[in-house]
């Protein structure tokens, strides 16, 4: 379905944008316009994008004369407006479990390792490349220890994080695993995470959303 009059501000390697691309694909939705904001050149911090989205972050949706950001907020909006298939279950307890995993990724892991933080560590604080990687690996492993404990008990219930259906948990997990592999994090200690990721990667909605 074409989302008329909706502009999606995207960047191919932004894991937050990657989440939104997966969600759109799972729901069979296509924004009318997709505009790339190149984070490598600093375009996100300059006009005209900064005038559109004050945070200067991607992803964002522009429609109805307004712009809205934050990937989880955008996905929850999509889930309310286009509820097939649901990414957040209607059942309150099931929804809580999904959000627990999603927020572990989006609130505890990703903010510590995104591009602007890594640039600040090496630029302003003067950390070396090795020190930056140590920082990255530490917070990935800390977060993945939690995720493995949350996902592993559900492996007999289905191929996704929490059973037989893809949810917001899987939408957040796959981009984070992609980033971990990109920075050469050893994932041998996380078989449940890797199994879910492998299954998701075999599905067109996830594959088509990948940065490549």
From TrEMBL:
SUPFAM superfamilies: GST C-terminal domain-like, Thioredoxin-like. One of its GO terms (molecular function) is maleylacetoacetate isomerase activity. Keywords: Isomerase. Residues 4-86 form the GST N-terminal domain. The keyword Phosphoprotein does not apply. GO terms for cellular component: cytoplasm. GO terms for biological process: glutathione metabolic process; L-phenylalanine catabolic process. This is Maleylacetoacetate isomerase. It comes from Thalassospira profundimaris. The lineage of its organism: Bacteria, Pseudomonadati, Pseudomonadota, Alphaproteobacteria, Rhodospirillales.
